[in-house]
């Protein structure tokens, strides 16, 4: 639609974890929760949240359940990975969207999950890692955690940490803060001679 800004998709996933330091044979992180916040023209158009059933290792480790405060029953009631991809693709039916995540693991795991399940990666647009943009913008040596970055702004994050939709919303709110700082620090255009002098008064002196 003419005059409409591109769609921004703020996405967060939670993943499975192995029980101990040594991974089980063939283990790889699988998506078990998704949070999506769709934004256009600085307004939230849609939100989506769901648990997702893993395929390769369907039973969660105790470590995973404890860390994410999540139950096996909730994961068992989730959508399939194929259904997750169907949901993600619907956001980009009309035009490619810009995907924004905090860190690069979300898209890495999504790509690997697609490969292991014989599925096509659902996005064709730009993927932006907001944590790297934040790091470069503030000149930090180390990569800052999502909630620590929000606290550095003197703000509070949304909901609970490591809940996918809450983290996606927090990423969106942090994105707005960073973008506002970028605009504030941009150098203004140098004034033209017309801005410095009222030419109507100057020309009036020489009018005959």
Automatic annotation (TrEMBL):
Superkingdom as given in the UniProt entry: Bacteria
Any Pfam family matching the protein: RNase_T
**What does the UniProt keyword field contain?**
Exonuclease, Hydrolase, Nuclease
InterPro entries in UniProt? 3-5_Exoribonuclease (IPR051274), ERI-1_3'hExo-like (IPR047201), Ribonucl_H (IPR013520), RNaseH-like_sf (IPR012337), RNaseH_sf (IPR036397)
Alphabetical list of Gene3D superfamilies matching this protein: Ribonuclease H-like superfamily/Ribonuclease H (3.30.420.10)
* The organism of origin for this protein: Metabacillus niabensis
Mind telling me what this protein is named?
Sporulation inhibitor KapD
Q: Which SUPFAM superfamilies match?
A: Ribonuclease H-like
The lineage, from the top, is: Bacteria, Bacillati, Bacillota, Bacilli, Bacillales
